[in-house]
Amino acid sequence: MPRLLKLMSPLLLSLAATPCFAHAVLVDSMPAPNAHLPAGALAVKFRYNSRIDVSRSKLTLSGPGGGPARLAVHRGDTDAMLVADATVVPGAYTLRWQVLALDGHITRGSVPFSVDAP
Predict the structure, then answer these.
(1) What is the distance between the alpha carbons of residues 45 and 56, in angstroms, rounded to a whole number?
(2) Of 53 and 4, which is predicted with more confidence?
(3) What does the pLDDT read at residue 7?
(4) Tens of pLDDT, residues 79-96
(5) How many helices and strands (H and E) does the chain possess?
(6) Contact 95, 83 (CB under 8 A)
(7) Shortest CA distance to 99 belongs to which of 31, 34, 22, 11?
(8) Cβ-Cβ contacts under 8 Å for 103 (sequence gap 6 or more)
(9) What is the pTM for the complete model shown?
(10) Which of 19, 31, 91, 111 is the S-S candidate for 35 at Cβ 3.0 to 4.6 Å?
(11) For residue 99, is pLDDT > 90?
(12) Is the pLDDT of residue 15 over 90?
């Protein structure tokens, strides 16, 4: 039995060392969390630590005067970026995101920010 264990040890170690894929984590955003921005056009850019499936991702914007509005999302400069456009007026906002990573897992989060009156 000990001889069999010695022979199988490299196989068991190689299985234990198999890398696993990480979920998509937001690493940079425009707007930044808790940012204060001017009213008008808003270019949303979210960058993640891994590639995402943009077609199965979503972004909603909640702000003054209404419930969440779903934004049309597009792929950014890389496969790990999500971009969208919106128009904002003064008030408190929250961008909620949901992305599907290549590992097949969905991750979610939110970015609160404010739009200041002129």
Answers:
(1) 17
(2) 53
(3) 47
(4) 999 999 999 999 999 999
(5) 1, 9
(6) no
(7) 22
(8) 20, 21, 22, 23, 50
(9) 0.77
(10) 31
(11) yes
(12) no
Domains of the chain with CATH codes = 21-116 (2.60.40.1220)
Task: Say yes or no to pLDDT of 30 above 90.
Answer: yes
Backbone angles phi and psi of 100, in degrees to 5 = -105, 120
Beta bridge partners of 37: 115
Q: Enter the tokens of residue 43.
A: 């270019």
| Pairing relationship of beta strands 91-101 and 52-63 according to DSSP bridges | antiparallel
Letter for the amino acid at 41?
Answer: A
For the segment 26-55, the average pLDDT, to the nearest whole number, is: 95
Q: Which residue has the tokens 């993640």?
A: 48
Contact 103/83 with Cβ under 8 angstroms? no
61: closest CA among 76, 71, 73? 71
- Tokens (6 digits) for 89: 């007026």
